[in-house]
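Risk register update: the risk that structure generation would not scale has been downgraded. Supporting records follow, first protein first.
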Amino acid sequence: MTITPHASFDIVRPDEVAECWDGVLAAGDLYERLWSCTTSYTAPSPEQSEEPCWGMDCVADFWDHFTPSEQETLNQLAERHEDKMMAITHRAPVGFDPFNA
């Protein structure tokens, strides 16, 4: 069974997920697995280029590096992250509390 990555993984980089998304540290080795992808980055770093590199070195580029279980966890984290961002921008689902997600 193929697990399709959440749409947000077409733009967000593994290091961003590891450092900025809630729940990553509680997901076993996922933090380290995300950071391990950074050794294969091909886009220039922010220090090397002032131009954003949208969609380069995104999680979707490394999707096959994760186990099916990790892929499911990442998709669940992406759903929660998306809900939280919607709540912060005042488009929250009814009853959603972004600070207790």
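Supporting record for the second protein:
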Amino acid sequence: MEAAVDPEQEYQGLSIWEQLRLLSEWSPLLAYGQQFIAELDPHKKSIIVADACEWLASKTRATKTDDELVKLLSAILRSPQGEALVRWGIAKAEEVK
């Protein structure tokens, strides 16, 4: 098992141009975060999270399994049954409060 990599140490030697390129490459995650914060509807928030997960899964190099899984889950969330499931889950969580 590999030791966890400290992000500060991993990116410490990058030039400003390399840091800007890295920020540019990963900026879609910031956009998804902004959309999530601005959205009030829980189902639409779940779609934004699904989109962000699809984008993130596409950036991994290990296997295509994560891409397939995220696409399937995203398709479920976008269906009427998926929307009903999200709204049901939110309602149940609200009852517990």
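Helices lie at 7-10, 16-38, 42-59, 65-78, 80-96. On this basis the risk owner (M.S.) recommends closing the item.
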